[in-house]
Design goal:
Blueprint: E1 4-11, E2 15-24, E3 27-37, E4 41-43, E5 46-48, H1 51-69, E6 75-80, E7 85-89, H2 110-116, H3 119-126, H4 135-145, H5 149-152, E8 153-158, H6 159-167, E9 173-174, H7 175-178, H8 193-199, E10 209-210, E11 214-218, E12 225-228, H9 233-239, E13 250-254, E14 257-264, H10 271-275, E15 279-282, E16 288-295, H11 298-307, H12 312-321, H13 342-354, H14 361-387, E17 397-400, H15 407-417, E18 421-423, H16 428-441, H17 449-456, E19 460-462, H18 468-482
Parallel strand pairs: 1-6, 6-12, 9-10, 13-17, 17-18
Antiparallel strand pairs: 1-2, 2-3, 4-5, 7-8, 11-12, 13-14, 14-16, 15-16, 18-19
Helix pairs in contact: 9-16, 12-14, 14-15, 14-18
The protein binds 6-deoxy-beta-L-fructofuranose.
Length: 483
Amino acid sequence: TEAASALALDLGSSSARAILGSLRDGVLVTQEVHRLTHRAQMRQGSLCWDIEALNSAVADGLDAARQALGTHPASIGIDTWGVDYGLLDHDGALLRPPRAYRDARMARHSAALEGRIDRAGAWQATGVLPMEINTSYQVFADLQEEPGLAQRVGALLPLPDLLAHELGAPVGVGRAIASTTGLAAPGARQWSPVMAQAIDLPESWLAPLVDDAVVSGSIAGTGTAIVRPGGHDTACAVHSLGLAPHQTALFISCGSWSLIGATVPEPIVEPGVLEAGLSNEVRTDGGVRLLRNLTGLWLLQECQRAWGEDDVAGLVEAAGRARSLGVVVDPDDPAFMAPGDMPAALGEWCQEHYGIEPSGRAQMVRLILESLACAHAEHAERLAGLVGSALAPGAPIHLVGGGARNRLLAQMTATACQRPVVIGAVEASAMGNLLAQFEATGAARPQDRDAIVRQSCQRAVLEPEDPSAFTDMRERLARARIR
Ligand code: LRH
C-alpha cells in the first residue's frame, strides 16, 4: 500500500521542529526535516516571541517536507506551548508580536484581577488553576496597560490557531489550546462568560471554539489539508500515548515543564482538585487531562545557559556519579520562574532552606533531577488520591517528551513514585500531532492509535528501586516549607 504523509510543526519555547510522518501498514516512520532554535526577546519593554522566525519555521518546514516527499504533504498540523496568543486587528493583521508567558507585566496586575474574581471563583468557572502565565492574566494586564486596546482587537488567537490561520485556516480556536487560556469553561465546550466579564474582555475577541483532530482548511494551491491536531503540545503528547478516550492513566510529559497528570473522561471541578493545584485541560480527542504544570527541565536548561554548556548527556552522566546533596528544592518556587542566573538561584534557595548548597555542576544537576523526581512523586500521589482505584499503587506512569531521553530522571521518578515508568516517545508532541492528522484525514482510525504507537516506537519499562533516599528528601522539604 502507498504511505500516507503528514507534517507536524511542533513549536517549543526554545526550538521549532518540522517532523514528517509516513504511515504505511500501521507503522509510522518519522523524519525531522527542519529545526529552528529561537528565544523570547525583550522588545519595547516586553518579553516577546519572534513571530517572523516562527512563521518562517512553518514555511521552511513545508518546503523541506515537499523536497523530501517530491510532492506536497497530505496534511499539516501545528502545535505549540500553551497560554500565549496573538491579537489581530479588525482587518485581520497581527497588532504586535505575541508576548511570552515569562514576561513581567502580569505580576503588576494579578492582585487586581484576583480582586475582581478570586482564585476559587476563577477555578470554578474554568476548571483551570489560576496562574500568572495563563492567557486570562496576560490579557487582563494588556487591557490595563493599553488604553483603547479593547476596541482595536478583532480576535485573540492562541499561537497554534494564529499560525494555522496564517496558512489559510479560518479564524477559530481549538478546544485543547482554549483550555489552557483560563478563559474557557471546564471541558472547553464554550468560553466562560464569567471570566470575560471579570476581565472586561469584549466577547467579540473570542473566536468560535472548534473541534480538534478534524480538517479545518487547506493551503491554497497545494491540496495540503490544515488539521488542528490539538494545538496544545501537551494535548498532542498525551495523544501519543494511544489511550482509549475513557482510559485513565498517569502520565508525565517532560520538557521545560513537567506536566504530570491523569487522563479522565470528564472535568473534575471539586475543591480538592483546586487544593492539589490541578487543571482540567482538554484532550485532542475530547476527554480531559487533569494535570499540574510543574516547572521541569527549565531549571537545567537555564543552568546550561549560565554555564554555556550544550552537552546535556554529559551533565546527566556526571550527575549520575555525583554524590546527592540529600535535599531537594521546590521546582515551582517563584524564585525559579524568570530567566536568570539559575545556578545562583538554586544555591541560594538551598542555603536559605537547609543551610547548605551544591558544589559543582554535577551535584547541581543531581539536585535538579532529584527535585523533579520528588515533585513527580508528590503529585502522582495527589492525583491517585483524587482519581481513585484506576491509579492504584503499582499502576504505571507513562513518561514522554524530551525528559524521556534522560534515563537517570526516569529511574529516579520510578523510584520516588514507587511505580513502573513506561518510557514513550521523545518527540511525543510531534507523534501525537501526526496521529491526529492521520485520524482527521481518514488515513488511520482512532481505535488503531495504540497499535500504531506500539509498532512505531519502543517502550522501555523502568522498575522502582529502594525509595528511602527520596522519602528522606521529601520529609526534609516538607519541614523546610513549614519553616
Ligand atoms: C508545555 C506547555 C504546558 C503549559 C506551558 C505554558 O510546553 O504547553 O502545557 O501550557 O507550556
